[in-house]
Amino acid sequence: MEHVDVIIIGAGAAGLMCAATAGYRGRNVLVLDNAKQAGKKILISGGGRCNFTNQKVEPANFLCRNSHFVKSALARYRSSDFIDLVDRHGIEYHERDHGQLFCNDSAKEIVSMLLTECEWAGATIKLRTEIGKVSKNADGLFEVHTDKAQYTCQSLVIATGGLSMPKLGASPFGYHIAEQFGLQVLPTHAGLVPFTWHSEQKQRFESLSGIALPSTITAKDGTQFSEALLFTHRGLSGPAILQISNYWKPGEAISINLLPGKDARCEIEKLLNNSPKQSLRNALALWLPKRLVEALFDEALLNKALNQLVHAEREQLAVDLEAWSIVMNGTEGYRTAEVTLGGVDTDELSSKDMQSKKEPGLFFVGEVMDVSGWLGGFNFQWAWSSGVAAGQVA
Ligand code: FDA
């Protein structure tokens, strides 16, 4: 058996960050991953440009059963710390809406940066390595059996991520290790994920595929996001939908404001005064794509002139435009989800260093735990912050 100080299972965002941090402390670090390539999710993230963090990261941008858990790690390794690292490596980036930071060129630069940091810190990375049995021996060391070699280590860091995108190698490995050592794992489900139509909705709205428009979407619990809404063949997507999917439960309606920033009643009254003979169809086409107007409203209603609409019809119209209530069939699931909600219960871990309270020397970092961020670079920031927190102690 070969002995190392720290074994990190998972060469993704959190695992690589943790490896570099522990390596710089002089720890002998080995990173194991069964994939052919390190940081595969980083490479495809942000449309290939990796939204690597956000200018403004707050605990409120995260979902976790214990809402205080993220505070310590986020405060000790901030988005500004990661931006400094990106700057030191000469990676150029730009800011998009809502403070999101993306590489100008390619997500490959973030992976190269992390691999360079690991190399400088003296951490070894072994890919294409299948992990077998993991146990703790009588000397209090972890034993990790792989298809290539057997290792013992003082600290074991689980950085195997969540279940989203199984075709990229996502696996429940981390949950199984947690359960093996007696840690509770909270039920998981897909997050930051598009919604799918019921069959009758599909017939009505499928032809709208490709339409994108600004919206404000509200979940049943009152959580609200103002971002783009996109119609797809399968259902609804776009940033607003991905964000609200984190707060949605099966069977619940979402409420969509199709005229964000406008007062529908006021706008309808204004049009009625200025062009009373205009058809409702043409009036609505001033604000919304014509195909959407025709799919949403009854033909006979659309053919009416504005001055033919009775007060109740105008009221209903305002409600439909500002609070279109729709119950979606479900989500596209882990196949296309960006994150996994739920996971290793944070009550089992120290918020300072991500170490198991029950099993000293066992750490969990990144998405494997019950911490998920909003869309906008928050999930990577959690990977960086939690990876550093564990790397400073492991
Ligand atoms: P991550 O999934 O990155 O790494 C886990 C590693 O463990 C992988 O290398 C995997 O091969 C390895 N592994 C798994 N099972 C194993 C096993 N049994 N044995 C050995 N190794 C194993 N976030 C963000 O902030 N900005 C963005 O732009 C995006 N964009 C984005 C796009 C898409 C399409 C997806 C799917 C996700 C995003 N995300 C994102 C989310 C982000 O990618 C995610 O939260 C982080 O990668 C999580 O980092 P981890 O290191 O925890 O897991």
UniProtKB/TrEMBL annotation:
Domain RsdA/BaiN/AoA(So)-like insert: 189-339
EC number: 1.14.13.-
Cofactor: FAD
Span of domain RsdA/BaiN/AoA(So)-like Rossmann fold-like: 5-392
One GO MF term attached to the UniProt entry: oxidoreductase activity
Keywords: FAD, Flavoprotein, Oxidoreductase
SUPFAM superfamilies: FAD/NAD(P)-binding domain, HI0933 insert domain-like
Xref: InterPro entries: BaiN-like (IPR004792), BaiN-like_dom_sf (IPR023166), FAD/NAD-bd_sf (IPR036188), RsdA/BaiN/AoA(So)-like_dom (IPR055178), RsdA/BaiN/AoA(So)_Rossmann (IPR057661)
Enzyme category, top tier: oxidoreductase
Name by which UniProt lists this protein: NAD(P)/FAD-dependent oxidoreductase
